[in-house]
Amino acid sequence: MVIVPSPVAAGRLVADILEGYVRAGATLGLATGSSPEPAYDELVRRHREEGLDFGRCRAFLLDEYVGLAADHPQAYRQVIRRALADRVGLTDVHGPDGTASDLPAEAAAYEEAIRAAGGIDVQLVGIGSDGHLGFNEPGSSLASRTRVKTLTERTRRDNARFFGSLEEVPHHVLTQGLGTIRDARHVVLVATGVAKAEAVAGAVEGPVSAFCPASVLQLHPHVTAVVDEAAASRLRLAGYYRFAHEHKPDWQGY
Fold it and tell me: Annotated catalytic sites, by residue?
């Protein structure tokens, strides 16, 4: 658990972590939403100003809306293209097809594609205000795999800012399951803003429960959670997390 002063500082630290994987030509797991954007902007800067090369990387997306055309501006492949891929020359990007005629078969095929690629080396994730991870809403199986999920009205309202109206937000998504996310070798969680504070506290310090799907990360052996002061405001052990980070041994990475 790393607490930083601001979303910009969170973005820099997340970019530091991801840069090592990019230089190694790793398989990246990419998330959309507001929280990862500062990290993507910093990676773009490093690509343009420092020559950070994404040419040996491939990427898999966490999720996709069901029913949105592939060229819809809010389809997550398009969002990732605008936020990162097109800006750094990352061309090997995969996501589930939300327009597939057989969605369960598409979900199974996406699981197989991740497996065939050797798995995901580092998975970047945000967290929903209700604790959802990917689009695994409260009540999701902690062992779930890629599948169709129905969005809660809270999630649809949270995402309506990206659409013209709430009515335009799809009701269904294809999302990596919690078990799929846990298969990644390293998970990097980024959360900023007071609206995420309750969810962060539940995920990090609450019980492992389907009520807060992100709490499943407590069972993962290698998670780095990067949060700003606002998102950390409900953490009971915030003082200890700061102390531990300040005294982190030089040899210990993230």
Answer: 63, 130, 132, 137
